Amino acid sequence: MKRDIVVYPDKRLKLVSKEVVSFNDGLHMLLDDMFETMISKNGVGLAAIQIGVPLRVLIINIPLKDKEKGEDQPKENTLEIVNPIFLERLGSTKFEEGCLSVPGIYEYVERFQFIKVVYQDRFGQAQEITDDDFLAIALQHEIDHLEGRVFVEKFSILKRKKFEKEWKNRKS
Ligand code: CO
Questions:
Q1: Any catalytic annotation for residue 71?
Q2: What single DSSP character describes residue 62?
Q3: I need a labelling partner for 144 at 20 to 30 A (CA). Which of 2, 5, 47, 60 fits?
């Protein structure tokens, strides 16, 4: 089922999400709902808190190239990541990011270049990812959501001021 996206500056986006302990139907339903919601908004990543659920769960689905729109993000291509922990973070890079909770805003922010993450899949099995490309960026963005952080917090002071002003005007 498609769920509503929690939009900035909703206070729920500041919550530190809790560890998942039950890898049951409830979790699987949450993951399936997150997928439907993300795809309906053409997103590439979504954390559970973005649909109002403060659990350490996120999904990432990087679109395949050379495919018709709508068919380029098959569900089997979705990474389902529960209770992620960084083992390594190295280097730095800048990438233009966006966020379904801050729709229409795209900005370059600084991230680590290389990451190694351990996590559990929907069945509680331990998994590991190492990456130094777009997946590394997406993971850092989504894991920030689990810590109650939104990417606008990484803007420079001037860009942040400009953004907050524009965001307020847009909403009123
Ligand atoms: Co986001």
A1: no
A2: P
A3: 2
Q: Measured between alpha carbons, how far is residue 6 from residues 10, 21, 70, 113, 145 in Å?
A: 7, 24, 23, 28, 12
Return the pLDDT at 118. Answer: 98
pLDDT tens per residue across span 110-156: 999 999 999 999 999 999 999 999 999 999 999 999 999 999 999 99
- 59 belongs to a structural domain: yes
Residues lining ion ligand 1 (Cβ < 5 A) are 99
Q: Does residue 3 sit within a domain?
A: no
From ligand 1's centre to the CA of 146, what distance in Å?
Answer: 10
CATH number at residue 43: 3.90.45.10
What percent of the chain lies above the pLDDT cut of 70?
95
The answer to whether residue 145 sits within a structural domain is yes
- Tokens found for residue 124: 């509680």
Query: Is 5 within a domain?
Result: no
- Amino acid found at 111: R
For ligand 1, the distance from its centroid to the CA atom of residue 150, given in whole angstroms, is 6
Asked whether the whole model's pTM tops 0.70, one would answer: yes
Q: How many domains, in total, are found in the chain?
A: 1
Å from CA of 157 to ligand 1 middle: 19
